What we know:
five-stranded mixed beta sheet, D-Maltodextrin-Binding Protein, domain 2, 49% helix, alpha/beta, 2 domains
Amino acid sequence: MTAYANQEKADQRPFSPKEETMITRKHLLAGFTATILLGVSSAAMAQTTLRIFTGGQQRPDVMRKIADEYERRTPGIKVEVEVGGATSEQQQQYLNTVMASKDSALDVVLIDVIRPAQYAATGWAETLDSYLGAERDAVMARYLPAYREANIVGGKVIALPYFADAQFLYYRKDLLEKHGLQPPKTWDELKAGAEKVMKAEGNPNLSGFQTAGAPIEGTVCTYLVPMWGAGGGLTDAQGKLALGAEAAKRPFQLWADLRAANVTPSNLAEIPTDRIRQNFQAGNLIFGMTWGYVWNRAQGDPDSLVKDKVGVVPLPGFSANAAATCIGGWQVMVSAFSKNKAEAYKFVRYLSSPEVAKAQAIAASHLPVFAEVYTDPDVLKANPWFKDALPVVQTARSRPVTPAYPRVSEVIRTNMNAFLAGSKTADAALADMNRDLSPIFR
């Protein structure tokens, strides 16, 4: 019998119990090894998930569409959008907790234009200079100056601009035309126009003018805008508090005058930013001091009663051509605690691109952070008023840039709110503002 035949015969004999056990273990080990290798391979091919936080008022639905497009273009990246807080304060309260605990759950965060100095001081933001590298200055030079300056703190790039904003005067175009009025250029013209329309319409639900009055960030601008328009400033050229000047009293005088004429509603102290939009869309407001996003909602929301009846112009001043406005806008920041910083930075660059600025302008009437996007034909078709918006954004004034801004905001908005609610006189509110802000602006 040949060796091959002997081997063949041996291969055909039954396995002993011991041999069967050894073979079973061998196959199990091979299978387990294959499973491990498959797991390693899957892990290597797994997606990177980026989590971005945005506020409820910053159109998370538009952010989701932008993120979907980024996922389509960037295989291996999945973007989760976390939404929270209807106001800047509510958003910041949540973020204070998350960032103070060094939580790595968030990779990218939308922050208000007033926040970069705070995030730089706390170390919550991943500085972007090393990621931008040699192109840093060229990249930053493309943005509108106010946003370039807002996002560079202590010489370091803290965040990149997502969209710009400023306050404008929204008005009922149909009602002004009906009653032979032009958009007001002064506060006196606004008061007279509102009184005329309200009297003629005889609608008890129709309010003449609204601005933010609740104890929220927008109410800081309710104080600053008329003060700036009167030639004043919160601080002087040396950075010291300047609320002893006559201009510091003008906001109280203006809002008291409009309240006495019943042009503003009795509950102005309860009105947050988005309530102005809601009241305007419901057809219950003639004039509103609010932000760029309102246009898209008033024109596009199915329940809007003012579609094609909306006008937008610069805010009035105490004299014609002496108006001021408050700069707004949102920035995208990489969390210092993210575990995906390199990929988060790439996503931030995309969010802060001219392409996304154009998409936002069309989908949400978010004002662009690039000058050239204001003249884009597609953008102007969606937002005809953008043709006059760029000079307003370029001349809008910034709220104080300081790591102590949360305290500055609290002092101004709570005192302004107390005055509007009637629980403090103008003198008392101004005195308390001086007392509480003096230690910050020495």
